[in-house]
Amino acid sequence: MDVFQVLLDAFCAKLNVPTHLVRMSFDGSPVLPYETPEEVADGDQVDMVVDWDQVKAPRAAANAVRVRVQRVGSKKTQVFTIAPEMTVKKLLESFCSLHNLVPATVVLKLFGEVLQEDVTIEASKVETLVAKVSRKRHVEASQVKFVIDGDAMHPHQPFHSYDLEGDEIIDVKLATV
């Protein structure tokens, strides 16, 4: 295999861009991956130009789970988008890597309970928001109902099962006693 082809493949894999959107030049002249010049030596510079206007931004999978992580004593939250099969351990490693922390010194909690590292995080369910609204409104959770497009949302369903795109209005109905 040609040296420039190997270089192009590695470059594109690192940046996660398709090879057809990268132009290469050597000594100021454009070259193709299969045209490795004879005079290439160790230490020579090859210029790579990516046509970023054509690169499509990566999108999270439709079933991805968005997890908000907040450090104790901080008001700032960070959002991690993870695959539903990703374990808490992977999330912990990503968080620690981002903040230069040792995973053994960090504890992730959800609603005050320590998360086990070998489990996955359930997608946010409607019941989570029902609980928040009921606490804020000082009513029982059974009195809170969410309605979208005229249909009641089931508390045990995850939000992603409703195919929300971001502009929907969810009506909150409180039953009176």
TrEMBL record:
The keyword Thylakoid does not apply. It is found in: Nucleus. Residues 124-173 form the Rad60/SUMO-like domain. GO terms for biological process: positive regulation of transcription by RNA polymerase II. SUPFAM superfamilies: Ubiquitin-like. Its main location: nucleus. InterPro entries: NFATC2-Int_DNA_Repair, Rad60/SUMO-like_dom, Ubiquitin-like_domsf. Keywords: Nucleus. GO terms for cellular component: nucleus. PANTHER family: NFATC2-INTERACTING PROTEIN. This is Rad60/SUMO-like domain-containing protein. It comes from Aphanomyces astaci.
